[in-house]
């Protein structure tokens, strides 16, 4: 009798999940969880609950189920289970911007299960995201590449969709909008192959909002608005809080770019409140930056300064170097427009130091990367060079004996550096 009920409940939950009604699926799963006896079954169900909670932005609650998985794995005494539990903990931590913890748990997962497995590709993706959050772009890229290799070699389309979108997001941050579009479109194309009732279609709205962001950065505001409205509509339909917050932030930014502070401000406020609720500190830093820029438009420099300080504080706590850099640069600008108590010395030094730390310069020409939109070329070591500089690198990488010279930035040997035909 009990087993019958359990089976029915599980079926119902599965249907809800497939319809992307994640919150409702979680309610059903929680009921079933109480009825299960076998630790292996409980473990699997905790994993499902954990990932469904992450889908709706409830990362902190998700973490408690990842913790339960960890306890169950210890009881079962199997290293595969342990590896999966560590991955779940890493996943929740990455989502709630606890990047150091995410990295540490990913490494534990890899240590428990170093060979190719279902979780190994996901672990590389999670590491890539955590490093991206900390603005360690070189490490982020190399981990994305490994996730992508794994996705292709195991024909894991869903992993490819996610990794390709994240690679696009990385290029967007570095100001290469052409590459961003190429990677995002690759994700969209793969998503197009999914059936209408596939829950993995949830990734589509994340890609669309990324495309909206790239349009916004290029000043293509009407297109940004269209993509953002598209993503928002679906995010509302499926109670996807993280994407809703992202859309609100972009709406606000678009209005600000159009000098419409009246419309921008309430949208920044709403984005901020969702992001603080779900624990997206990196997002909060971006929103505070947008609010500070709005205050500058309104010539309220005192408010701009306060908002900027708050952003600096948060980005320091989240270890988000790009956020810190933007705050220092903004503070320097603010001091030029309206001198205050802060003499402004030091900000330039911080900016230089952060650029160095993030290795945000082209190894060939030495210019800073990401200051203006430009096509980039990643090298196998993870360093980026300008695409226009890559031919020079190719020439210089062929030594006298026809041997490749290392990447100018890190001098690591690389077999994948672009090479021009010698003829
Ligand atoms: Zn260059
Ligand atoms: Zn390098």
UniProtKB/TrEMBL annotation:
> Keywords on this record?
Metal-binding, Zinc, Zinc-finger
Q: Known PROSITE patterns for this protein?
A: ZF_RING_2
Question: Record's CDD domains?
Answer: RING-H2_Rapsyn (cd16478)
What molecular function terms (GO) are annotated for this protein?
acetylcholine receptor binding; protein-membrane adaptor activity; zinc ion binding
Q: Where is the RING-type domain?
A: 362-411
InterPro entries attached here?
A: RAPsyn (IPR052480), Rapsyn_myristoylation/link_N (IPR019568), TPR-like_helical_dom_sf (IPR011990), TPR_rpt (IPR019734), Znf_RING (IPR001841), Znf_RING/FYVE/PHD (IPR013083)
* Family matches, as SUPFAM superfamilies: RING/U-box, TPR-like
A Pfam family that this protein carries is Rapsyn_N
A cellular-component GO term for this protein:
plasma membrane
According to the record, the residues making up region (Disordered) are: 402-423
Task: Extract one GO BP annotation from the record.
Answer: positive regulation of neuromuscular synaptic transmission
Q: Would you tell me the protein name for this molecule?
A: RING-type domain-containing protein
User: Origin organism of this chain?
Assistant: Elysia crispata
């Amino acid at each position: 009798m009990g087993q019958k009920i359990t089976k029915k409940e599980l079926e119902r939950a599965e249907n809800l999940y497939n319809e992307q009604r994640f919150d409702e699926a979680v309610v059903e799963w929680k009921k079933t969880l109480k009825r299960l006896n076998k630790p292996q079954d409980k473990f699997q169900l905790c994993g499902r609950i954990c990932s469904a909670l992450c889908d709706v932005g409830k990362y902190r609650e998700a973490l408690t189920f990842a913790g339960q998985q960890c306890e169950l794995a210890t009881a079962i005494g199997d290293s595969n289970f342990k590896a999966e539990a560590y991955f779940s903990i890493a996943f929740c931590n990455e989502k709630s911007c606890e990047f150091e913890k995410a990295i540490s748990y990913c490494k534990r997962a890899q240590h428990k299960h170093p060979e190719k497995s279902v979780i190994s590709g996901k672990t590389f993706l999670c590491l890539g995201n955590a490093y991206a959050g900390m603005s360690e772009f070189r490490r982020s890229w190399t981990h994305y590449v490994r996730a992508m290799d794994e996705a292709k070699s195991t024909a894991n389309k869903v992993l490819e969709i996610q990794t390709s979108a994240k690679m696009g997001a990385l290029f967007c941050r570095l100001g290469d909008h052409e590459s961003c579009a190429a990677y995002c479109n690759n994700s969209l194309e793969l998503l197009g192959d999914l059936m209408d009732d596939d829950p993995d279609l949830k990734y589509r709205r994340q890609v669309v909002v990324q495309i909206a962001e790239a349009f916004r950065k290029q000043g293509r505001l009407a297109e940004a608005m269209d993509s953002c409205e598209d993503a928002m509509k679906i995010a509302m339909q499926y109670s996807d809080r993280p994407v809703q917050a992202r859309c609100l932030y972009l709406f606000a930014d678009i209005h600000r770019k159009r000098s419409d502070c009246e419309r921008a401000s309430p949208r920044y406020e709403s984005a901020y409140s969702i992001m603080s609720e779900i624990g997206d500190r990196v997002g909060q830093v971006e929103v505070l930056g947008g609010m500070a820029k709005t205050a500058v438009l309104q010539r309220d420099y005192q408010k701009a300064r306060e908002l900027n300080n708050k952003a600096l504080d948060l980005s320091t706590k989240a270890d988000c170097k790009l956020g810190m850099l933007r705050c220092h640069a903004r503070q320097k600008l603010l001091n030029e427009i309206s001198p205050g108590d802060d003499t402004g010395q030091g900000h330039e030094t911080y900016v230089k130091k952060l650029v160095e730390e993030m290795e945000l310069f082209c190894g060939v020409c030495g210019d800073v990367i990401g200051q203006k939109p430009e096509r980039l070329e990643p090298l196998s070591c993870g360093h980026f060079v300008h695409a226009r500089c890559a031919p020079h690198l190719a020439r210089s990488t062929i030594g006298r004996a026809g041997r490749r010279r290392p990447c100018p930035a890190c001098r690591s040997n690389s077999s994948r550096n672009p090479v021009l035909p010698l003829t």
